[in-house]
Amino acid sequence: MSEKWKIESKCEHYYKMAKKEKYRSRASYKLIQLNKKFRIIKPRDYVVDLGAAPGGWSQVALDIVGDNGKVVAVDLQRIRPFEHENFIQITGDFTKSETVEKIKDALEWNADVILSDAAPKLTGIKDIDQLKSIDIVENALKIADEVLKIDGSMIIKVFQGEGFQSLLKEVKKKFKIVKTTKPPSSRKKSVEMYLIALKKY
What we know:
The chain has helices spanning 3-20, 28-38, 56-65, 97-107, 126-147, 164-174, and strands at 46-50, 70-75, 87-91, 111-116, 148-159, 175-181, 192-200. By secondary structure, it is α/β, with parallel strands linked by helices. It has a single domain, classed as Vaccinia Virus protein VP39 (Rossmann fold, 3-Layer(aba) Sandwich). α3 links the parallel β1 (46-50) and β2 (70-75). α2 (28-38) packs parallel to α3. The radius of gyration is 16 Å and the shape is globular. The chain starts with a helix and ends with a strand. InterPro entries: RNA_methyltr_RlmE (IPR050082), RNA_MeTrfase_FtsJ_dom (IPR002877), rRNA-MeTfrase_E (IPR015507), SAM-dependent_MTases_sf (IPR029063).
């Protein structure tokens, strides 16, 4: 049994589960697994989901926060709405100041959690894709400076490679606890890693 077959079978497993359980993306299981392990999103939380399309992570977050929480999803692409009054979608570039202002307006007060499963448009050139990934994380951290409450938390995807350790040091300056992890639903050979940043200073 080849390694490639195992990987494809695993991906197909989560894809079929997503269809069966009516999740918009197989990536939903990444957040389910991460939150089960670290208990970051809780009922009543206000959550910002950066790079949210097609909405798989927002869907999971909505299930957890319940009617008294809120999920603000941001993406360049329009996201098909959910039947929740506490779901707000912002179509825009979260690296732009005008989009950050829209996030603030939608939240009304500070967020408890910021999520980012955003990935750059891949060029196939490892070093360029790595730098683009780090740029996304740095922009997410800037948004955290503006909208995340003290003691708030983040889950951010980043690619491993050059600049990763420097980025990790930067995150540790802003949060008391920082961990790196990879959920079971991630592809083993993928360079993606998730930063779990807890208790913002």
